[in-house]
Structure formats: C-alpha cells, structure tokens
C-alpha cells in the first residue's frame, strides 16, 4: 500500500517528488485518520483530472470531547509550488456549517492557504491550523437520521439550513458570541488586525483593510464566496 501511494504521488508531482513524499509521510505519521489515494477532480472551468488525495478525518477537541472532522486534501499538479485544495466532506449524518472558512460546497479557505509558500509551507502545518480553526468554528453539525433529514454529498450545500441538528457539533464552541469574544474579532486572513472592511459587491466582512486591498490587487476574489471584488470600503464602528 505504501509503495503504491508513493508511486502515484511521484507520477503526479514529478518535479518536486521527493519533498512531496516527505510531506505526505509526515502527514500520515500524525494524522492517522487520513488515507492516501488518487481521486478524480473537476475544476470550475469543467476540466477534469486525477489528483493525489488524502481523505479521511482530522481530530478536534471541544469541551474535552474529540470529534473527527471528515476532510479531503488534494495536491494539485505542480505541488508544492501550487497551493493544495482542501474540502470538508460530510457524511450522510452531517451537514456543512458555512463560515468564512468553509463555503456551502465544503471548500476550505484559510490564511495559511492564501499565503501558501512552497519553500516554507507544508500540509502537516496546514492541517494543524485547520484543527485549531475548526475547534473554534466546527465546519459540520450532525443531523437527524430520519429519511426526510438525511443528506447526500451532492445536496449538502442546499440542505444544511433545513436539517434538524442534533449532537454537540450543532452548537457553537464555548463562549462564542459572548461580549468578550466580540472584542477579540480578528481578520480571517492575517488573524491579527481587526476586521474593518466590506467587499463590494458581495458585501462580505471579516477582513482588515490591508488584507482586503491585497486580495483585491492579487486574486481579486472574495475569500468567502469567490465573487469578483470591484471595490473595498472601510467600515467604522458606531
């Protein structure tokens, strides 16, 4: 099994094969719930390809209880020079909880991905960062197992708002939403400055002006909904 995934990874990465193998070995050493393999992936422009993937679960701990979050990490052609893709893949008893970090399709957005640098970034650190963020903002919640409430992966983006939640993951982490928490809001990109901008036309908040302007200059896409950014306006507290 180990030899087969290494061969598959080398075929897909070629240029940086040795560093990619070491990166994946490190991930599998610490995240035992992930399994390597090849998966077919369709890009937004319709192009289909096969990518090396690590799919399974990563652990988070809330109030002393460990939960396994289903994810899939896809290494694009040209990895590590090309940023990896990460998705939350809920089971039939789960639904996605949309946030600045996860969209309705399960695609993950995080400052570590936004600032990916092939010379210093790696998958293991990325997953550790996701565990930290998902502990604060769980990306899934459980739903009732009845036929009317079950969801499939294909319909998860539209069904999660109507599903009846049950279990701890449907609740916000401790102290979230309290006044003390409100005073600690951080930019979802740099996670250091206070968010004080709004993106036009989508209207999403959560970024500081410096990061918002940098994204407008570079990717030109909102990190939450991926719509094109026409303008960035500063927001002032009343």
Automatic annotation (TrEMBL):
UniProt-annotated stretches for the region Disordered: 145-181
GO cellular component labels: ESCRT I complex
Keywords in alphabetical order: Metal-binding, Zinc, Zinc-finger
Domain RING-type: 187-226
One of the GO biological process terms: endosome to lysosome transport
Pfam families documented for this protein: UEV, zf-C3HC4_3
This protein's record includes keyword Nuclease: no
Cited InterPro entries: ESCRT-I_UEV_domain, UBQ-conjugating_enzyme/RWD, UEV_N, Znf_RING, Znf_RING/FYVE/PHD
CDD domains with a match to the protein in the record: UEV_TSG101-like (cd11685)
GO MF, any single term: zinc ion binding
Residue ranges occupied by any UEV domain in the UniProt entry: 1-144
Domain of life: Eukaryota
Gene3D superfamilies, per the entry: Ubiquitin Conjugating Enzyme, Zinc/RING finger domain, C3HC4 (zinc finger)
Residue stretches of biased makeup (Low complexity): 148-160
SMART domains: RING
The protein's name: RING-type domain-containing protein
Organism: Pocillopora damicornis
Species classification: Eukaryota, Metazoa, Cnidaria, Anthozoa, Hexacorallia
